[in-house]
């Protein structure tokens, strides 16, 4: 499923998981634009890279969800990915 944000698509693979971690429709436009500018995708297509393995990701009580420092602590799914991905040390 593709979710259109300001005319550009953000790909959502596992929509149910993504929606349990964050709700794109409820994010402020500035947050949606930031995700768009960083080519955020809800489900990574790279088996070696996902938010769960990124230095900017902080897991929450739910292992499949967390927050991202790049998105001002906004919610992301552990299986998501953006262009700012950096491997955890």
What is the N-to-C succession of helices and strands? EEHHEEE
Major sheet characteristics: 3 strands, antiparallel
Strand content: 15-25%
Strand sequence of the main sheet, in spatial order?
3-4-5
Q: What is the SS-derived class?
A: alpha+beta
Give the helix tally.
2
Written overview of the protein:
The strands form two sheets. Strands 3-4-5 form a three-stranded antiparallel β-sheet. The protein is α+β, with helices and mostly antiparallel strands and 89 residues long. It contains two helices and five strands, in the order ββααβββ.
How would you describe this structure in keywords?
globular, 2 helices, 89 residues, 18% helix, 5 strands, two-stranded antiparallel ribbon, alpha+beta
Summarize the topology.
Blueprint (H helix, E strand, L loop, with lengths): L1 E4 L2 E4 L3 H7 L7 H9 L19 E3 L5 E4 L5 E4 L12
Antiparallel strand pairs: 1-2, 3-4, 4-5
